Amino acid sequence: MATQTATANRSKQDLTVEQKIQELRKLYADTPQFAKTALENTLKDLTSAASQPRSRMASAGRTGSRQGTVSELTVIAPFASGGAARLRALLQLRNGNFDDTDRVGTVHDMRFVFLDNDTKLLFATAYDGDWDVYIEDFVAKIPNEMDVLFSCWEGWPGIHSPEVKDWIAKHQVTAEGWYVANPNLSVAETRRLGKVGKAVEEFLDKVG
Amino acid sequence: MATQTLTKPQQDQAFEKKIQQFRELFADAPEIGKKAIENALHELKSQASDPPPQVESAGRVGARLGKVSELTIIVPLAPGGAKRLRAFLRLLGGNLSQGADKVGTLHTMRFVFFDNDTRLLFATAYDGDWDTYIDDFVAKIPDYLDIIDSAWDGWPGIRHPGAKDYLAKHQITAEGWYVAYPDLTVAEILRLQRIGKAVDDFLDKVA
User: Fold this and answer.
1) What are the residue boundaries of the structural domains of chain A, listed by start?
2) Which residue has the higher pLDDT, B14 or A101?
3) Model-level pTM?
4) CA B24 to chain centre
5) CA B83 to chain centre
6) Contact A169, A62 (CB under 8 A)
């Protein structure tokens, strides 16, 4: 019985993948020849990837996507008047130094990108875990730094405002494709492994 | 002449000047921004005067911290492009590990549709130099690139001599870039995972 169900689900899944491939072929029918060729070349790969994905993209909570333990947050919002100049000065002063973010301990990476002639800011990060917990962590650990950075945005309500989460969620755009090389490694685990690696080298040096 | 290094007092002076400029810029910020800057200034001072990990160029375009670089591309979508790319991403459940694992230098990658499906943000964190990275993509997964990028308006095709110029033209260098472990490449992290596992096994055996 259990096996039958599994088989039925399996063929249903295959059918869906097959249908999706057909749909994709149709959509690519009016692309340039190089794109059509590329699709045909990868169909076998694509079919197996679609049937047995290594990990599935999930929701990071309120908004955003997640693979394993690693989530993405992508916010695009207009600058307040003078905001671009303020943020640029701040980033230049920091000169790549984000010790405060190190302290939060759940951020893999983050970028600040000025768009459309300094009228909008893209802020994009990769972080560990759930959306709500992540925002709360920032509020608890580095509220001043957050306000200094994000008061560059038009309408930023302030990190202590009850509306701050709604504001972020409203300007966040969920990624529809999200890849993570090591979806099971949190920042903490990666740092731990770095220490283990170093200890092993020292150990081998001593016994060597 | 041989060295451009500033003396300590010169450094301090330059830094004080920056802080001053900065206060002036924040003079017309909202009250929350002004208040926060005073609260944070003390810490900012100590951060900015510590020798920071330097953000460098990733090569032709983009920023790099340690070994990890950022690529941020924003392109207009071709007619029907959003629909095609979305169907492609959905087929793979949003996961592009099949292709990206083959490249082996990619930490993260995201696709974000915005402005009512007229524009796409493509953003990655990767190891090393811009030219090498693009060459790697071209060598290892050219078909994936063409499937994805044919949704982009004006994409000439990966084998076209203008492909790199197209990418560089649409890339915007990040003005702030942070990486939690700037010295670890994807390959190094994989190696550390194996070491970590071996150490666990070893400790289990001696326990």
Assistant:
1) 2-52, 59-171
2) A101
3) 0.84
4) 30
5) 26
6) yes
Residues with Cβ < 8 Å from A151, sequence gap 6 or more? Answer: A80, A83, A86, A158, B29, B30, B32, B33, B36
The predicted-structure confidence for B48-84, as pLDDT tens digits, reads as follows: 665 557 899 999 999 999 999 999 999 999 999 999 9
Alpha carbons B63 and B179: distance in angstroms, whole number: 11
Residue B6 touches chain A, beta carbons under 8 Å: no
- Could you tell me the pLDDT band of residue A12, with boundaries at 50, 70 and 90? low
Between positions 82 and 101 of A, the ones with CB within 8 A of B are 82, 85-101
Residues of chain B falling short of pLDDT 50: 1-3
CATH class of A59-171: alpha beta
Interatomic CA distance for residues B201 and A166, integer angstroms: 46
Order of all β-strands in the sheet with A120-128? A58-59, A65-67, A70-78, A120-128, A107-115, B176-179
Distance CA A140, CA A136 (A): 6
Average pLDDT over residues A172-184: 95
Residue of A34, A55, A176 with shortest CB distance to B111: A176
pLDDT of the residue at A6: 47
C-alpha span between B56 and B129 (Å, rounded): 11
